[in-house]
Automatic annotation (TrEMBL), chain A:
Its EC number is 4.2.1.2. The keyword 4Fe-4S applies. Residues 12-277 form the Fe-S hydro-lyase tartrate dehydratase alpha-type catalytic domain. NCBIfam families: PRK06246.1, ttdA_fumA_fumB. The keyword Lyase applies. It is an enzyme of class 4 (lyase). InterPro entries: Class-I_Fumarase/Tartrate_DH (IPR051208), Fe-S_hydro-lyase_TtdA-typ_cat (IPR004646). This is Fumarate hydratase subunit alpha. Keywords: 4Fe-4S, Iron, Iron-sulfur, Lyase, Metal-binding. It comes from Fusibacter tunisiensis. GO terms for molecular function: fumarate hydratase activity. Belongs to the class-I fumarase family. Signal peptide: none annotated.
UniProtKB/TrEMBL annotation, chain B:
It comes from the Bacteria. Keywords: Lyase. It holds the Pfam family Fumerase_C. It comes from Fusibacter tunisiensis. This is Fumarate hydratase subunit beta. Its EC number is 4.2.1.2.
Length: 280, 171
């Protein structure tokens, strides 16, 4: 049995909340530098240039990349041979979020009740997804999920007969409807299969994969490529003002499903795409 | 690039065309979802006189002691669409946000000579550089959604929809 001090989890979660809000991923930066050369719209190119400038200012550590510093979504992979001492895992994660958002000057964007809508004041609680695995490892991923892009996400229960064309059309329609709202250039996460809630979770998990790293299954990697190409011909472009850089990447995840169903979820991330993982 | 100042006059509004890139200086007011809902419930006691003014749909991140403001980019304007025509009818002359507006907003803009600007969504750190002063003036209990008075200098904006209803989003 491996024992991990909850205080270490608190400080790592805090660090990840702060770091992911001040540094854009190297995958996003590389995609932007490529897009500067390929973007057909002059205004679109200037916007990408401004987003790179924005990232430079944020990296100096005084201003977050975006004022919407998100709701913390935390993926936990915990081995059955791990115990946490001093605090529950959930409390440790929420404490890390609380400290990170306070000390990092990050916006508190969480309301304690979706209907009463009073701000919780410390950006807690986080949305936590636990996965129990074999062995004694503990991996925690923290994603600060902004809602401009979250609001444009969608899920549909397709029919098996809709097939791959139905999946592609639903994804492309969702991005077309989202238009300028999710602050394009975006990253698109697609979850296919499982059940209603499994598809949504797969779509979110797909966003944690670096841009350009394709799915190990050939037919899914090809689907990702086709989707990226179709989305970038929609002429939404940077900020929805036209152009060829609407999405920087499309990542899909799949899971076995029922004979009667074909759930498909589309989760959108803006370029800030804030997420970090720590192996304890 | 045109230089414009607040409060906006009718002549300035009428001179702006969709697609124009402008540098805005002067006082603007921030309000987003919760502040709009509260303003509409208290139209007789608005936190500032709307005449000639601009509302910026933004909820900044907290201000560090060394800075005038935190990151402060625009939020999605469409969520304010249902609440905007009433404010335009009361004298509001401009909005700053991101994304398209619905037909009811555009028609209220045409009838009141108002303009809709966009700032770059996701460039909140860059935009913060053009904010000189920032004071909460109402609804402090709303936290990041409180109404703030901001003094901006050379804030880089694009006219997305002009007072004739012409829009950058209509392809």
């Amino acid at each position: 049995m491996r024992s991990i001090d909850a205080n270490v989890i608190v400080s790592e979660v805090k660090r990840m909340c702060i770091e992911c809000n001040y540094q854009i991923g190297s995958d996003v930066k590389e995609s932007f530098l490529r897009a500067l050369k390929t973007e057909k719209s002059p205004l679109g190119g200037r916007i990408i240039g401004d987003l790179l400038k924005n990232a430079e200012i944020a990296a100096q550590g005084e201003l977050p990349i975006c004022q919407d510093t998100g709701m913390a979504v935390v993926f936990v992979e915990i081995g059955i041979d791990v115990t946490i001492r001093h605090m529950s895992l959930k409390d440790a994660i929420n404490e890390g979020v609380r400290q990170g958002y306070k000390e990092g000057y990050l916006r508190k964007s969480v309301v304690s009740d979706p209907i009463i809508r009073k701000n919780s004041g410390d950006n807690t609680p986080a949305v936590i997804h636990y996965e129990v695995v074999d062995g004694d490892r503990l991996n925690i991923t923290v994603a600060s999920k902004g809602f401009g892009s979250e609001n444009m996400s969608a899920l549909k229960m397709l029919k098996p007969a809709d097939g791959i064309d139905g999946i592609e059309n639903f994804v492309v329609d969702t991005i077309e409807k989202a238009g300028s709202n999710p602050c394009p250039p975006i990253i698109v996460g697609v979850g296919i299969g499982g059940t209603f809630e499994k598809a949504a979770l797969l779509a979110k998990k797909a966003l944690m994969r670096p841009i350009g790293k394709c799915h190990p299954f050939e037919h899914i990697a090809e689907l990702e490529k086709r989707l990226l190409s179709r989305i970038n011909t929609l002429n939404i472009g940077p900020q929805g003002l036209g152009g060829t850089t609407t999405a920087l990447g499309v990542n899909a995840e799949v899971y076995p499903t029922h004979i009667a169903g074909l759930p498909v979820a589309v989760n959108i991330n803006c370029h800030a795409s804030r997420h970090l993982t720590h192996e304890f | 690039m045109k230089n414009i100042r607040t409060p906006l006059t009718e002549a300035v509004v009428q001179s702006l065309c969709a697609g124009d890139e402008v540098l805005l200086s002067g006082v603007i007011y921030t309000a987003r979802d919760a502040a709009h809902m509260r303003m509409l419930e208290n139209l007789d006691h608005l936190p500032f006189d709307l005449k000639g003014q601009i509302i910026y749909y933004s909820g900044a991140s907290p201000t560090r002691p060394s800075k005038a403001i935190g990151s402060c980019g625009p939020t999605t304007s469409g969520r304010m669409d249902e609440m905007t025509p009433k404010l335009l009818d009361l004298g509001l002359k401009g909005m700053i946000g991101k994304g398209d507006r619905d037909a009811s907003v555009i028609s209220a803009m045409c009838r009141n000579d108002a303009v809709y600007f966009i700032a770059i969504g996701g460039a909140g750190a860059l935009i913060a550089d053009s904010v000189v002063e920032n004071t909460v003036i109402a609804y402090e209990d709303l936290g990041p959604e409180a109404v703030k008075k901001m003094v901006v200098k050379d804030m880089k904006l694009i006219v997305a929809i002009d007072a004739t209803g012409k829009s950058l989003y209509k392809k």
